[in-house]
Amino acid sequence: MSILALVALCGIQGYLIHNTYQLKKDVFIKETKKSVSSIDNTKEIDSLAELWYNQLAKNLTEYKKNNLLKNETIERFKPFTDSLNDIFNQYYKKEISKADLGYPLQYKKTIKSIIIYDNDVLDTIFYSEKGNNYFLFGENFPEEEGNVISNARWFTEHDYEDDSDEGEILKTTLDVEIKTQDAINIIGWKKIVFGQMTSLFIFSVVLLLFVVVLLFYSIKSLIQQKKIADVRNDFINNITHELKTPLATLSIASKSIRNKEIQSSPTLFSNALDILDRQNNRLQKLIDQVMNNTLGSEELLLKKERVLDNEYLNNVIEDFKLSVRDKDVAINTKIEYRDAYLDIDKFLVTTALFNIMDNAVKYGQDEVVIDIKTELTKTGYTISIKDNGMGIPEKDQPNIFDKFYRVHSGDVHDVKGLGLGLFYTDQIIKAHQGEIKVESKQDIGTTFIITIPTIKE
User: Fold this and answer.
1) Whether residues 134 and 261 fall in one domain
2) Which of 292, 320, 344 represents a domain boundary (last residue)?
3) Same domain, 59 and 35
4) In this structure, are residues 446 and 436 in contact, taking their beta carbons and an 8 Å threshold?
5) pLDDT > 90: what percent of the chain?
6) Residue 435 above 90 pLDDT?
């Protein structure tokens, strides 16, 4: 619907601009015509008109006397008008300069038709076809480039003496109709008109850009809202799933305590209480995870201490090995040979590293292989954690550090989690003025690269 509205707006804008262009064009040409219309009504132009008309009348007289053919009447007229054209152009350019139009102009006068009336018979000497008029004076530009100033129609009578067969000289009247046309060619008129419309063009472009940006922002907001809604729904589904298991276990354990046989057996009763304690602790940890792992980097309170890289990392790796000793996990390490001192919150950074390695186990193959490599670089201390798991789709990689985001692969509950681990990891690294990046290929594995500052000795 928004796209249709944008298309409709573009159509309306185009229609308005086209109409404005036509209006500006008509007004501009009309004003130009008005500025030059008086030039044709001067004594000088009238004198030239009398000269060319008299010459044309002589040719027509010779035609009526059968001394010239019809086409010769026009052909013999042209050299005469050409000789007068220089005078006409000089005068016209002088008058145009007086008008001070501010732009160049071409002018020409043409004949559209010459017709002799002989009683009731019409004898057409010349008639233009498809605008191909006979050029008289001015600059001979193409008809389609010109704009007509005026059309004139003359009815004149010309007396001449005609020799009869009996040797008598008879006075004869020649009735002639001459149609002429005056036209101008405004050089670069389109550029001038478009220049007058500059403000309209700018306003239209700005308005269109505003609408496009507004539409883009609306669509982006809609997508973002949908994404938030999807993440929220996933989180609700996951937290519901995570809570159901301990609650169901608590319900079973509480019912079993009421059983007289269990009450009479101290061992069974003690086991039931242990189950209640474990499930209660599990619920408490879930609540703590939601409460603590949603903190941003600026909200984390760091308790930094100075540690030696190899000692600290070896302890972290050994602790993690103990936590996954019941699984088939191989951890290969390549620790930087040079000593490097880090100023970190040991508990938080350990949590971040555990989150990454725990994901490697969750999403790994049956035989999990984790490669940990550290390196001291110019930009800081780099910890690289690589696994041989299923990998992360390219489209999901920009979002994996978002709060509650989980990569969809089949059933959302295949792997337990709330979508907070990597978010919390990212916030911990940022709180240490560090950076975390991910490189991953599906069915090959994922590498997390953490860079944190070092203490300069």
Assistant:
1) no
2) 292
3) yes
4) no
5) 9
6) yes
Question: Which of these, 174, 183, 181, lies nearest to 56 by C-alpha position?
Answer: 174
| Res 276: pLDDT | 78
Query: Does the residue 212 lie in any domain?
Result: no
The answer to whether 20 and 197 have CB atoms below 8 angstroms apart is yes
Q: Which of 35, 161, 218 is nearest to 27 (CA)?
A: 35
Same-domain pairing of 185 and 235: no
With H, G, I as helix, E, B as strand and everything else as coil, classify residue 383: strand
**CA gap 147, 182 in Å, rounded:** 9
- Tens digit of each residue's pLDDT (9 = 90 or more) over 308-328: 999 999 988 888 888 788 788
Strands 368-376 and 329-334 turn out to be parallel
Give 371-413 pLDDT, tens digit per residue: 999 999 888 999 999 999 888 888 888 888 887 777 765 443 4
Does the pLDDT value for residue 415 go beyond 50? yes
- 157/227 same-domain check: no
pLDDT of 203 strictly over 90: no
Say how far apart CA 283 and CA 247 lie, in whole Å: 8
What are the contacts of 163-172 at 24+ separation with CB within 8 A?
163/65, 172/64
Domain of residue 157: give its range.
2-196
Cα(107)–Cα(35) distance, integer angstroms: 13
Mean pLDDT for the stretch of residues 87-97: 81
Residue 58 falls within a domain, yes or no?
Answer: yes
Among residues 196, 228, 254, the one where a domain terminates is 196
In a domain, 355, yes or no: yes
**Per the structure block, which two tokens stand in for 457?**
């000795």
d(CA 48, CA 55): 11
Instruction: Give me the pLDDT at residue 164, please.
Output: 52
Token pair 């996990």 in the structure block, residue: 329
To the nearest whole percent, how much of the chain has pLDDT over 70? 84
CB 419 within 8 A of CB 238: yes
3-state secondary structure of 162: strand
Candidates 447, 446, 304, 444; CA nearest to 383 is: 447
Q: Is 127 left (phi over 0), alpha (psi -120 to 50) or beta?
A: beta
- Give me the CATH number covering residue 330: 3.30.565.10
Assigned token pair, 243: 């809570």
Element (H, E) at 185: strand 169-186
How far is the C-alpha of 114 from the C-alpha of 180, rounded, in Å? 9
Distance in angstroms (rounded) separating the CA atoms of residues 121 and 263: 138
Let me know whether 58 and 85 are in one domain. yes
CA distance linking residue 407 with residue 230, whole number of Å: 12
Q: What is the pLDDT of residue 420?
A: 73
The two tokens of residue 373 are 């490599």
Domain count, the chain: 3
Residue found under tokens 């890289």: 309
